[in-house]
Amino acid sequence: MLEKSLISIVDDDQYVRDSIRRFMRSLGYSVEAFARAADFLASPRLDETGCLIADVNMPAMTGIELHKRLTDAGHAIPTILITAYPDVAAQAQALTDGILCYLPKPFDNDELVLCVRTALERNRPNRP
Amino acid sequence: MAKTLSSMARTAWLPAFAAILAVAIFVADTVTTVDIEFAILYVVVVLLSARFLDARGVVLVAVGCAVLTIASFFLSPPGGDRTAGMVNTAIGLGTIALTAILAVKDQSRQIKLLEAQERFRVLAESSLTGIYLAHGDHFQYVNPAFARMFGYSVDEVVDRLDSRDLVWPPDRPTVEENTRRRLEGEVEEVRYEFRGLRKDGSSLPVEVHGRRIALAGKIGIMGTLVDNTERQRAMDALRETGQKLEHAQRIAKVGWWELDYRTGHVSLSDQVCRILGVEPLDLPMWYHLWRDVVHPEDRAREGDAFAAALKGGPRYDVEFRVVRPDGNVRIVHSQGDVAWDESKRPLRQFGALQDITELRQMEQELRASEARFRVFVDQATDAFFLHDAQLVVVDVNQQACDALGYSREELIGMHPREFDAALDATSMQRLQEQIAAGEVATFETRHRRKDGTVFPVEIRARQFEHNGIWYVGSVRDITDRKRTELELEERQNKLREIREHLELAQRVGHVGSAELDLATTTWQWSEQLYEIFGFDPKHGPPTDEQIAACIHPEDRPMLLRRRERSQAGEQVDPVEYRIIRLDGRERWLYLQSRVVLDAAGRGRKAIATVHDITDRKRAQQRLLAHHAVTRILGEATGVEEATPKILEALCEHLEWHLSALWRVARESGALRCEAFWRMPSVEAPQFEAATRQKQFRPGVGLAGRVWAERAPHWVAEVVPDPTLSRAPIAWAEGIRTAVAFPILLGSEVLGVVEFFSCQTRQPDQDVLAMMETLGSQIGQFIERKRAENALQLAQAELAHVTRVMTLSELTASIAHEINQPIAASVIDAGAALRFLTAQPPALDEARQALEAIVSNGRRAGDVIGRIRALIKKAPPRKDSLNINDAAREVVELARTEAAKNGVSIQMQLGDGVSPILGDRVQLQQVILNLVVNSIEAMGSANQGRRELLISTAPDAAGGVSVTVCDTGPGLDATSADRVFERFYTTKPNGLGMGLAICRSIVEAHGGRIRAAANEPRGAIFQFLLPSGREAVRGDGEGAPPDTVSGYGLRDP
Q1: How far is B837 from chain A (nearest CA, A)?
Q2: Which residues of chain A are within 8 Å of residue B825 when distances are taken between CB atoms?
Q3: Which of A16, A18, A22 shows the shortest C-beta gap to B823?
C-alpha cells in the first residue's frame, strides 16, 4: 500500500487554489489541485490522498457533497472545508457529518497547517 | 128457320080455320056422295097449313087429309058407283099429295128467300163496314156502322141528311165529282178516300167503294165505307217504322243486299248504295260491277270467300275495303247466306253489309290508346301491380320489373310474400280486409329485389271489380324519401336543438325577445321575456298599457321618446331601464331594438331583444358602492368624517332612500344613532326623529337584533307592528323595506348600519354578502384608525429594516467577492514566509508567492470596480417622467421615517419643470437615499429644529435640478470632497457605498451630483439632470462633482 501522504485541493477559484497548493508545497507536502470535484473523483491518485482541502461553494458539486460521495464510496479521506460564506449552522452540520475542519476565508495559515497535520496523523493508525 | 116460321104464323086463327075447314070438308064428304068436290077442298087445308107449318107438318097435314079422304070413302053410304067413288078418292088423294108436294116445295123456297134476306140484314146490320144506299141527295139505307162512324143514329141519317152533310167541306168537290161520274155512267164503280164530317164536327178519314145501281127503276149509288182512321194510323206507323229502319240502317251503316242466282239480279238497299257511294241500282248482273268497287288489294280475298260460300264452303263473311267512285276508301263487313233449291243449286243470297270504317278506326285508336296507355304505365315512375283475388300478380309495369329486378314474366304469378320483406301473413290479411272494405289503403313496407337487397316502399292499393275481384297497387320506392325524411328529421331535431339551445341561451343569458307592431302597439313575446317581466305566458302577450305600468316611473318618459322616434322610422340606440315587476321586484333591462320600416319610411314594427342585466347592474352598483366606500375609508382621517360619506355613497349606489349608523356606546351598553342620511327626494321626518332619539339594547329593534346576531338582516316587507317601536312610523311614512348589517371587528360589534327603501325589495344575497364585507371593512377601518400611531411606527420600522436588509445583501455579495483574493493573499503570504525561512531559502518560490499576493490585491480592487460598473452598466430605462411626481412619491415613503425622527418635510416643487427621460426607480432611489441620509443625520443630532426641504427647479439648459436641504450637523470641507467616494463613511455601521451609488446613477443619466454645507447649518445635496432631449450617458464617466465653496461637508 502506498502511503497516504498526498494532499488534494478542490477549489473553483484559481487564485485560492494556487495559493493553497503553493503553501502546501512550502510545507513539503505532495500536492494535487483540481478545479472541479468531478475531476478529483476521476483522479488515478485518489487512493493516495491523505487529506482533502475543498471549497464549500462550487458550481457543480459542493465540498459537502464531495465528502459525502467519498464517504459513501468507502474513501474515508480526512477533509478540510473552506468557505467565503461562513455560516455557523452549516459549520456545525459539517462537523457532525465527519468533516475534519471548517475554515471561513480568510483563515489563519497556522490553523490550516494544524488541520492538515491532524488529517495526515489520522491516517496513520489505519496502516498495518 | 123456326123463328122465321113462327113469325110467319103470327095469324093464330089460320090453324083453327084450317082445322074447322078440314072437319067441315070431312063431314060434307062423308055425308055426301058427291065425291070429287069435297076431296079437292082438302087442298085448301094443305095450302093453309103450309102457311103456318113447316114441311114436315105440311106432309102430316096432307097425310091427315088423305086419311080423311079415305075414311070418307069408306064411311060414305053405299051407293053410287063404287068405282067412281074410288076414282074420285084416288084423284082427291093425288091432288092432296100434289098440293102437299108443291106447298112444301114452295114453302122451302120461301124460307130460303127469307133466310137470304135475314142473312143480308144481319150482315148489313152487324157489319163494321158502313153500307149505304143513296138516291139523289138522300140515303135510302145506311147500316148502323155507317151511322156510328159519323156519330149519328141510323134514323137520323136515312131520308133526313143530305149526303153532302157527311163530307168534310174541303173534300166535297171530290165527292160530288165522283158521285157525278158514277151517276152519269162514266164509271161503273169507284174507290176513293175522303174525309168525312162527323156529327160532333170532327173529321174522319174514310175510304168509299161505291157503284151505281138501278133499284126499282131508279138509279142510285150503293157503297161501302170504311173508317180509315186505324189504317191511316197503321200506315203512318208503318211509314214511321220504315223510316226508323232506314234511319237505323243509316246510323248503323248497315244495309242489305240480295243476289238472285236464277236471274242474276242484284238488289241493294239505299244504305248499301250510300256505303258504296253508288246510285241506287237495280240491275241484272250488277255483281260484276261489284268487283270494281272492291279495293284491288282485297279483291282476290273477297272473291275467294264468295266463291267458297257458293261451293258450300264456309259462310260468306268477309271484311274488305271498297273504293268509292270519288276515291274515298271505306272498310265494310259483308256477310250473307245462300238459299239452295232441292238439287242443291243456289237460289239466291241475302246479306247485310256494314260500314265498319269508324269501328275499325276506333279499334285502331283503341289499340293505339292501349299501346299508349301501356307505355304510359310502363314509363310511370311508380311500379304498378295488378293482383287477382288470391293476391297473385297478374300484371306489372316496367317500373315494377326494374325496381324488383325480375322480368315481367317472372313477376306474373308471384305472390307478394315472395318479394315483400316486411309484411307477414297476418298483416297482409288485415290489409286485404281493409281494402275489401272499400278503402284505399296506404302503407309502407319493404320489398326485396331479386338480388336480395331490400328497399323501402310506399304502397297505395285498392280493390276493384271487373269480372271478379282484383287488387291494384301502386308502389313507390321511398328510399330517397326515407333518407330525406331522416335528414329532415335530423334537421328538425337539429333545429329543435338549436331552438332549445336558443331558449336555453335566452334563459341562461336572461335574454328575451319581442316584436312590437308600432301601429297597433301589439306585442309578441318570447318565453323568456315573460319570465323577465314576471307575466304568465298563459295569458298571452300583455298589452302596451300593462307593460308601460311596469316601467319604472323615472324611465317612462325616456322610453316614450324612444318609442316615438322608432315610430318615426329612426333606428335608436340601446338603452338601459328599470321595470318594477308585479311581484314588486325591480329589474334592470338592456333594450336593443331594430326598426323595420314600411313603404312610407315610417316604423312598421320593432324587433327587440331585452337583456336582464339586473345582476350585472347590481354587481356594478355593488362594485361602485364598495369602491366608493373603500376610497372614503382610504381618504378619511377619522371615523367621524367617513361615516356620513359612507352612508351617502351606499344609498346612492345601491338605491336605498334612507340610512342610519348606530354605534355601540360602551358606557351605556346600547346602540345610539350616530349618523342619519336620507335622499333629498325622500321625506320621513318622524322616522328620522324617532331614529335619532332611540337607543337599542341587543336584540331590540332591527339594529338591536343585528347587534345580537352579528349578521345582516333583511326585512322585505315592513309591517306596522305596534310592538315594534319604529315600524308603524316607518310604514306610515312609506318605508317598505329595511336592511341592516353589523360593523364587526372580529366577533366584536362596533356598530350597525341600517338602510331603508320606499320600494319593496326582495332579499338580495349578493347585497347581503357585500354588506357583511363592508361591515368588517368599516370595523377594520375603525380599528385601524384606533391603532393608527402604532401602525405608523411599525411601518417606519419595517421600512428601516427593509433598507438594512437590502444593504446587508449587498454587503454579503461584496464580502464574498473580496474575501477570495484576501484569503488567497493571506495564504500566499504564509507560503512566502515559509519559502524565505527555509534552509536554503527557496527564493523563486517566495517570489512567485509574493507576485500572487500583488495580483490578488489588484483583483480585490477590481471587485469594487466591477460593483460600480455593475450599477453604471445596468442600462437605465428611458421613460418620460415628471420629477415632481417622483419626488412626491419618495416623500410619502419617507414620511413615516421622518415622523419617527421628528423631522418635518417641506416640498417646493417648481412649476414648469419639463419631463425628462430616465429610470424612475433609480432616480427615486437617489432621492430616497439623500432624504434618508438627511433624516438620519438630523435624528442623530440633538440641537435645533429638524427640517428637510426638497425642491425642484428647471435649469438654464432645459434640464432639472433636485435639491435636498437639511438642518443636520452638516459637512466639513474635507468630507464634501470625499463624500461620494466608495467606502467613505462616517457612520459606525455605514458601508460607504450609498452616495457612491447615487453618483453612479446620476452620472449614468448624464447628470452631476454635488454636496455643500447649508446655511446656517446642515447640508445641501443637489443633482442636475439634463433634459429629455439629451442622450442619456451610458459610460457613467461624468464630470467630477463640483464642490460648492463655502458649504461645510459632513459625513452623510
Answers
A1: 10
A2: 19, 106
A3: A16
Q: Which residues pair with B673 in a beta bridge?
A: B662
Task: Say whether B556 sits in a helix, a strand or coil.
Answer: helix
Distance from CA of A104 to the nearest CA of B (A): 9
Cβ proximity of B703 and B710 under 8 Å: no
**Which residues, 6 or more positions from B694, have their beta carbon under 8 angstroms from its beta carbon?**
B673, B701, B725, B726
SS3 call for B612:
strand
CB atoms near residue B59 (< 10 Å): 18
- The arithmetic mean of pLDDT across residues B149-172, rounded, is 86
Min CA distance, A76 vs chain B (Å)?
A: 26
Please tell me the distance from the alpha carbon of residue B269 to that of residue B249, in angstroms, as a whole number. 10
Distance CA B411, CA B401 (A): 7
How much is the pLDDT for B487?
A: 86
Residue B1009 one-letter amino acid: I
CB contact under 8 A, A23 and B821: no
Instruction: Return the ∠ at Cα B192 (arms to B191 and B193), rounded to 5°.
Output: 145
Report the residue from A22, A107, A109 with minimal CB separation from B848. A22
Interface test with B, best of A7, A14, A26 (most B CBs within 10 A): A26
Q: CA B575 to CA B123: how far, in whole Å? A: 131
Is A18–B852 a contact, with Cβ atoms under 8 angstroms apart?
yes
Return d(Cα A43, Cα A32) in angstroms, integer. 10
Strand segments, DSSP code E, in B884-940 are 904-909, 916-918
State how far the Cα of B120 lies from the Cα of B497, in Å rounded to an integer: 120
Interchain contact, B816 vs A84, CB within 8 Å: yes
User: Mean pLDDT lowest for which of A109-123, B195-209, B366-380?
Assistant: B366-380
The answer to whether the CB atoms of A23 and B830 lie below 8 A apart is yes
Chain B partners of A106 at a C-beta cutoff of 8 Å? 819, 822-823, 825-827
| Structure ipTM over 0.90, yes or no | no
In three-state secondary structure terms, B568 is: coil
Q: How far is A67 from chain B (nearest CA, A)?
A: 22
One-letter amino acid at B955 equals D
Q: Which residues pair with B1019 in a beta bridge?
A: B1013
Q: Specify the pTM.
A: 0.32
When scoring A9, A11, A12, A23 by the number of chain B Cβ atoms within 10 A, the one with the most, hence best to mutate, is A23
Measured CA to CA, the distance from residue A66 to residue A85 in angstroms comes to 18
CA-angle at B504, arms to B502 and B509, nearest 5°: 90
End-to-end CA distance of chain B: 205
Residue B554 DSSP label: T
What pLDDT shows up at residue B9? 47
**Joined grid coordinates for residue A73:** 464510496
Contact B463, B470 (CB under 8 A): yes
Packed helices B82-126 and B55-75: angle between N→C axes, nearest 10 degrees: 170
A34 CA to chain B: closest CA distance, Å? Answer: 16
Quote the cell numbers at residue B1044: 460648492
Alpha-helical (H) ranges within B127-228 are 144-149, 154-157, 172-183
**pLDDT tens-place string over residues B634-664:** 777 777 778 888 888 888 888 888 999 888 8
Question: Using CA atoms, how far apart are residues B976 and B1052, in angstroms rounded to an integer?
Answer: 9
Q: Which of B226-230, B812-816, B982-986 has the lowest average pLDDT?
A: B982-986
Q: Indicate which of B814, B816, B827 best probes the interface with A, i.e. most A CBs within 10 Å of its own CB.
A: B827
Q: Strand ranges (DSSP E) for B569-657?
A: 575-580, 586-597, 603-612
B788 C-beta neighbours (distance < 10 Å), count: 12
pLDDT in tens, B244-295: 877 777 777 788 888 888 777 788 888 888 888 877 665 555 666 677 788 8
* % of chain B beyond a pLDDT of 90: 5
Q: Which three cell numbers stand for residue B756?
A: 331603508
